[in-house]
Specification:
The protein has no helices and eleven strands. With 119 residues, it is mainly β. The termini are far apart.
Length: 119
């Protein structure tokens, strides 16, 4: 399995920036994709941005052009730079790592970090 520890997050005014980081440990070589999801109160958890093993990235349409996902393979970390934040970006942000299992995969989650954007 993979253990994920997040850092960053907090309270920021609309238009501001925050940076989230996620450090992975454990079965690092098994990870096929790694990235960030978020969950607002009363809403389902949704994809924000993710890296696949091949290096391609996927962004949610709502954050494209404002958020940038990056990784440091030497440190086994994935970061999310969030610029031009909006109140609707307020959510708990979760680091995610997927490990293939048969024809599917297992999701590993961090503990979550709160991001609050005030208007």
């Amino acid at each position: 399995q993979v253990q994920l520890v997040e850092s960053g997050g907090g309270l920021v005014q609309a238009g501001g920036s925050l940076r989230l980081s996620c450090a992975a440990s454990g079965s690092i070589s098994s990870i096929s994709a790694m990235g960030w999801y978020r969950q607002a109160p009363g809403e389902q958890r949704e994809l924000v941005a993710i890296f696949t093993r091949g290096g391609s990235t996927t962004y949610a349409g709502t954050v494209k052009g404002r958020f940038t996902i990056s990784r440091d393979n030497a440190k086994n970390t994935v970061s999310l730079q969030m610029n031009s934040l909006k109140p609707e970006d307020t959510a708990v942000y979760f680091c995610n790592a997927r490990i293939p299992s048969g024809n599917s995969y297992i999701n590993n989650w961090g503990q979550g970090t709160q991001v609050t954007v005030s208007s």
